[in-house]
Design a protein that fits this description.
The complex is a heterodimer. By secondary structure, chain A is mostly helical. In chain A, 58% of the residues lie in helices and 2% in strands. Chain B folds into three domains: 200 residues, P-loop containing nucleotide triphosphate hydrolases (Rossmann fold); 175 residues, P-loop containing nucleotide triphosphate hydrolases (Rossmann fold); 59 residues, no CATH class. In chain B, strands 3-4-2-5-6-1-7 form a seven-stranded parallel beta sheet, with helices on one face. In chain B, helix 14 packs across helix 15. The longest helix of chain B is centred in the last third of the chain and has 27 residues. Chain A: This is Helicase Helix-turn-helix domain-containing protein.
Chain lengths: 347, 491
């Protein structure tokens, strides 16, 4: 399975903005709290949620430590890190190799399972097109096999092959031919044995990391295209849609608010604590560009916070609200920070 | 039906269903015994097609077969082998399945003809209930030697198989293994609660077409040089076994740099997709050799492997005999070489003991369940303690078991060292170890006596060097359109 290798962590850091590696770790492995989401928004990392769902978090921390030892990253006293000049040079190299054009797919779909599904679809369609009934199956995943079986039961193997070939040709025709070949090198099928990423890297004289990233990029974009074009194959893809409970709960709370419910009413209705409802709302403010900030923050409050907080939002702390904490709750303070971040990025 | 007719029918079925004209040694005996409703213990050497015995029984009698298998990779290989033979009614119930998938399988368990189970699954009430609904035709205990604490591969989960077998109504049972000493065999039959009338089918572990050699090398550098020199002389394809993933990768790189051989690494650190790719490349002749850990080889049926080299001495003769058994399945001359360095002794001792908790660790885990819980995620020995706990084994009993395991592992390692240092016929050493009464007459192409030199050219004088013309390593075309064209036939 293709993966995101450790060198790529450099891609996430900046020479200007000190960033917390722990936030990256939590976002990539989808361990989300409102604080993680807020800082993810500040660092513009939200597109990368769930990029590495089975990440070894201890290994991640070690790798960051190693990048600091190698002087690619510079650790600050507050636990944040800055990209060094060496790190920046390395980052530029990485950026030139390949990047993920649609990382947001990872937040919404189980892409690593979809990679297995694609490999299975190709092998089954390939062998069937050559009328081979006996072959060593390349994917040992029960769920993928069950999803494919259901689809084939409804549409048949011939339709699978025709649809898949059409979609692959259409998608790959617009790709760089070398990337398209890397994408195809992962497939097993009739008289076709897949190559390992290391072998592909050696054959093309590029890094293994570049091959792995190319595979992830093309796989994720291919499945996205199947969904967006409403391909007949799409139902198999949507089966692997992530259950995004956090997002759904936040949306539900936001809907109630826009329908005129007050926070105490929502608390009573949902049997949840007020703090949980407020966290849902903060999440909704991060996820939704048209969040109704005006319902929670008056102009006076915004002006007051604008006066007492410094210009650099990254430096803000709730303690800076000081004597006004009785009037300005943490909820309002964080909401204001989200609003200001949105305002900055829209400018 | 008389005996001749039965034999004829079995052969006819073998050809029709499996495409073979002859049974391999022991297969017919095992199948006949099972068809006569006798539980059977089959001790058949690696490569003799033990799995065919129960596959044949299942297909022939059209009764469901439940197979208990100790390793995920072994199970998966066997499932895929069955699918490859066109049998789609096969499933593996193990930790790879999600909760929903497991539930779906259990609801439709009677649809499957071959059900593979990890031993711990039998403790799951839903699984047991579903199995009780089945009319099990045959219960197979694969790698049955794992039940014996006297054996090197003891698995605590296997201890409950006798009781589970009874709960399932004492179905007809086949216990299979490649190697078992008399003591292990006695444990197997007792702990599995096999009836006294069980049939034993045992064939020698000896593989006369594999030349046995061991070389003692003073240091790591000399070992590497000797390995490279051997690779330049040996006819392929071949396998090199390592006890460490790191060294497996390092030596793969070195071989790539220093020889023109096409080589790839294979170990548990690779993803399933990468392992599949390497395995298929090896099977189709695109690779000359594989550098592997013990993760490789289960279910791999490549008949023309000419050499198996152990870069690290294995921990015991049971595993050694299994691993060298991958060579020469076509009956042609092959060779098994151990490259030994004194450090191997310590490496193996460390590996053997690391997997077993010592008294201090046990005491700590007993006092602090939280420490055990967190250690279980990372440490093999802590995980073992958790498994024992789940099985209801007390800490005092654990202490005893682990002490016995340590003694056993040390004894096995000493036997392995004795083999490496043995001055006489190595083949006879192995036969004696496995309590075989047969003594072979040492002759040319049998083994290296002591540390005498051996002549590879002479050993392989009668082997036809087959040069395959398959493209190596990389797919033949770098044009994606050609790859698609090859994959999918135009209508």
């Amino acid at each position: 399975m293709s993966k995101v290798s450790e060198d790529n962590w450099l891609l996430f850091f900046s020479t200007q903005q000190a960033r917390r590696p722990a936030v990256l770790r939590q976002l990539l492995s989808k361990r989300l709290s409102n604080s993680t989401l807020f800082w993810g928004m500040r660092y513009q990392w939200l597109a990368y949620i769930n990029l590495c769902p089975s990440m070894d978090t201890q290994a991640f921390d070690q790798q960051i430590k190693l990048l600091c030892q190698q002087k690619m990253l510079l650790k600050q006293d507050d636990g944040t890190v800055l990209l060094t000049a060496d790190g920046q040079a390395c980052q530029a190299q990485l950026q030139a190799e390949h990047s993920l054009a649609a990382p947001q797919v990872f937040a919404n779909y189980r892409v690593y399972d979809l990679v297995k599904l694609l490999r299975l679809l190709v092998q089954v369609a390939s062998e069937a097109s050559w009328k081979n009934a006996r072959y060593y199956v390349a994917v040992d995943d029960f769920e993928c096999q069950a999803v494919l079986k259901n689809w084939v039961r409804a549409h048949g193997l011939r339709a699978l092959k025709e649809q898949l070939v059409t979609e692959l040709k259409k998608f790959l025709a617009l790709e760089d031919p070398q990337d398209a070949w890397i994408f195809c090198s992962q497939f097993a099928g009739h008289e076709t044995v897949p190559a390992t990423t290391k072998q592909v890297a050696q054959a093309l004289n590029i890094s293994q990391r570049a091959v792995e990233l190319t595979l992830l990029d093309l796989n994720s974009r291919f499945v996205l295209e199947l969904i967006q074009t409403n391909s007949p194959l799409a139902p198999m893809i949507t089966h692997f849609q992530s259950k995004n409970a956090l997002y759904q709960k936040s949306q539900k709370t936001l809907t109630l608010i826009t329908r005129g419910f007050s926070i105490p009413q929502i608390v009573q209705r949902s049997q949840l604590k007020e703090s949980t409802i407020l966290e849902h709302l903060l999440n909704a403010a991060i996820f939704n560009a048209d969040f109704p900030f005006e319902l929670f923050l008056s102009n006076t409050e915004r002006q007051l916070l604008g006066k007492i907080l410094p210009a650099d939002i990254d430096q803000w702390q709730y303690s800076m609200v000081g004597e006004y904490q009785a009037k300005i709750s943490f909820f309002k303070y964080r909401l204001y920070a989200i609003w200001r971040t949105r305002e900055q990025s829209e400018r | 039906m008389n005996k001749v007719n039965v034999e004829h029918e079995l052969h006819h079925f073998l050809q029709q269903k499996f495409g073979f004209t002859e049974f391999k040694a022991g297969q017919e005996e095992v199948i006949t015994s099972l068809l006569n409703n006798r539980s059977t213990v089959a001790i058949l050497p690696t490569g003799t097609g033990k799995s065919l015995c129960y596959q044949f029984f299942g297909e022939y009698t059209k009764q469901p077969v439940v197979i208990i298998s100790p390793l995920l990779s072994l199970m998966q290989d066997q499932v895929e082998q069955l699918r490859l033979q066109g049998e789609k009614r096969v499933v593996a119930l193990n930790s790879n399945l999600s909760f929903q998938d497991k539930r779906q399988v259990l609801e439709q368990l009677n649809r499957y003809a071959f059900i593979y189970l990890a031993p711990e699954m039998l403790r799951n009430e839903a699984v047991l209930a579903a199995l009780l609904q089945l009319n099990i035709g045959l219960l197979v205990i694969d790698e049955a030697h794992c039940i014996s604490a006297w054996g090197p591969d003891f698995r605590p989960d296997y201890l409950q198989l006798g009781q589970m077998r009874h709960q399932l109504g004492d179905p007809l049972t086949l216990a299979v293994t490649a190697t078992a000493t008399k003591r292990v065999l006695a444990d197997m039959t007792k702990l599995l609660r096999l009836p006294a009338s069980f049939k034993l089918v045992q064939y020698s572990v000896d593989r006369p077409n594999i030349f046995l050699a061991t070389e003692k090398l003073p240091d790591e550098q000399t070992k590497k040089e000797r390995l490279l020199s051997l690779l330049k002389q040996l006819p392929g394809p071949g396998l090199i076994y390592f006890s460490s993933k790191k060294q497996c990768d390092e030596l793969t790189e070195l071989i790539q740099q220093k020889t023109s051989l096409h080589v790839a690494a294979y170990h548990a650190g690779l993803s399933f997709a990468e392992r599949y790719a390497v395995q298929q490349q090896f099977l189709t002749g695109q690779l000359d050799l594989i550098c592997a850990t013990s993760a490789f080889g289960m279910g791999i049926n490549k008949t023309d492997i000419r050499y198996v080299i152990h870069y690290h001495m294995p921990q015991d003769l049971e595993n050694y005999v299994q691993e060298i058994g991958r060579a020469g399945r076509d009956g042609q001359q092959s060779i098994a070489i151990i490259l030994f360095n004194e450090n191997d002794r310590f490496l193996q001792k460390r590996l053997a003991f690391n997997s077993l908790p010592n008294s201090d660790e046990l005491e700590l885990y007993q006092q602090s369940p939280a420490a055990l819980k967190s250690a279980s995620l990372e440490s093999e020995s802590a995980y073992l303690v958790t498994r024992y706990q789940q099985m209801g084994i007390s800490f005092a009993d654990m202490e005893q078991i682990f002490t016995q395991r340590r003694t056993e592992k040390l004894r096995a390692l000493q036997q392995m060292l004795a083999y490496v240092n043995y001055p006489d016929c190595k083949r006879n050493f192995i036969l004696r170890y496995f309590d075989e009464e047969r003594v072979v007459k040492h002759q040319q192409n049998c083994c290296q006596l002591g540390e005498e030199s051996y002549d590879l050219q002479q050993i392989f004088a009668n082997v036809d060097q087959v040069t395959n013309n398959l493209p190596k390593n990389t797919p033949p075309s770098r044009d994606y359109r050609q790859v698609l064209q090859k994959l999918f036939r135009d209508d």
